[in-house]
Write a structure and sequence with these properties.
Blueprint: E1 5-6, E2 9-10, E3 13-17, H1 18-30, E4 37-45, H2 53-59, E5 64-72, E6 78-80, E7 83-85, H3 88-101, E8 106-113, H4 124-135, E9 143-149, E10 159-164, E11 170-172, E12 178-181, E13 185-187, E14 193-195, E15 222-223, H5 227-234, H6 262-274, E16 282-288, E17 291-300, E18 303-310, E19 321-326, E20 333-337, H7 344-362, H8 367-376
Length: 377
């Protein structure tokens, strides 16, 4: 399924000042060995919220996103050749300062790079994270614009995507969607724009430096990945590594992407600290084919349940998977992907809510309870 077409263009128009594109490129070239990125800021021309996915899809081709700048990673960002996590607290504070001055300012999306690792597509963790953001009730509009820097050419070869609220797919944008304008655009009072736009200046009618992808060819608008393929690819994707297994507390885990960063080591230490708590005595950590896994039983406030927790591939990503099963019969089992599968402390919270749900549906007066009574009788 393609994005709807309007005036010969499928999907939205994204206008980016030359200085923003140049800054994007300069940041990549200044950091050849680590991923970099930032949060796009700007304004939306057109309605930003709709009741249904069909309305969003129909409206998207009439939307214009005017990027004014981006917030960089921040002072406490975590960066590596295959990992990038911005200083979110700092970015939120900086955005709130600008929002007080320009109330119509929006967080339009984000960008990051894969230039140190050679990946030319979004990772499954990227996809889950962007879908979680656009679907979050606090996200103020129904769309999220994403750029991926794929090599040291920066913006010239970047790929661009659109995520839409409640859509299980995302869309790669084309040369017709992303337009770099030669002159600067600045914010004026009340969130208005001044300078070149597609409507106001003939110099902005022709795309400027908007080819994307390492082959410098712009693909047609297309649905990139469905939720079904995303979920199947996120279930344990085992990659070979030389990591050693650990059966619990005391042995130091060596796990690429975790033990080789300060943030990852802190998280591993916190997980091993959890194993000293009585609630987690039935849990063992293992490393299998390059992924960290916790298996066993958790004793929570409302009882116990067995779990299998596939940790994210690297700290901060959302490509983990938590599976929970009630120990009593009939067996009830759930799978929880994304940010709630980040560690044992979060798993215990989810287990508590799961057990409360199980207890409620097993009550004799519940629908399930009545059915089970009839079945046994």
């Amino acid at each position: 399924m393609d994005l709807p077409s309007r005036a010969g263009r499928k999907g939205p128009l994204v206008i980016i000042p030359r200085r923003v594109a140049d800054r994007f490129t300069a940041e990549i070239q200044a950091n050849p060995r680590v991923e970099v990125g930032g949060k796009y800021l700007g304004f939306i021309r057109g309605q930003g919220r709709y009741r249904t996915l069909e309305e969003r899809l129909n409206a998207v081709s009439s939307l214009i996103f005017q990027v004014t700048d981006y917030l960089d990673d921040g002072p406490k960002a975590e960066r590596a050749a295959g990992f990038h996590m911005g200083d979110v607290d700092w970015q939120v504070r900086e955005f709130r300062k600008l929002e007080r001055q320009f109330p119509e300012l929006e967080p339009l999306g984000s960008w990051h790079s894969h230039h140190p690792n050679g990946m030319s597509t979004l990772s499954t963790g990227d996809i889950h994270g962007y879908m979680a953001t656009v679907n979050h009730p606090d996200h103020t509009h129904d769309f999220f614009f994403v750029s991926l820097g794929v090599d040291r050419s920066g913006f010239a070869t970047a790929r661009h995507y659109l995520f839409i609220r409640d859509d299980n797919a995302f869309y790669e944008l084309t040369v017709d969607n992303v337009r770099v304008v030669a002159k600067d655009e600045s914010i004026q009072q009340h969130g208005t724009m001044q300078g070149d736009t597609a409507d106001q200046d003939s110099t902005a009618q022709e795309p400027d430096n908007t080819v994307r992808g390492p082959d410098k060819q712009a693909p047609d608008n297309k649905r990139v990945q469905t939720s079904e393929t995303m979920q199947s690819s996120d279930r344990p994707e085992m990659q070979p590594s030389g990591a050693e297994a650990s059966d619990g507390v005391g042995r130091q885990l060596r796990l690429p992407g975790w033990s080789d960063t300060s943030h990852g080591r802190k998280m591993l230490g916190r997980e091993q600290d959890c194993l000293r708590d009585r609630a987690y005595t039935g849990i063992r950590l293992v490393v299998k084919d390059g992924r960290l896994i916790a298996k066993g039983s958790i004793t929570a406030d409302k009882g116990s349940a067995t779990i299998s927790l596939l940790y994210p591939s690297t700290p901060g990503r959302h490509d983990g998977l938590l599976e929970i099963a009630a120990t009593a019969q009939p067996e009830i089992r759930v799978q929880v992907p994304g940010e709630l599968s980040a560690g044992l402390e979060q798993a215990a919270v989810v287990v508590n809510e799961f057990l409360e749900f199980v207890r409620s549906i097993r009550r004799p007066d519940s629908l399930v309870g009545r059915v089970m009574k009839q079945f046994r009788g």
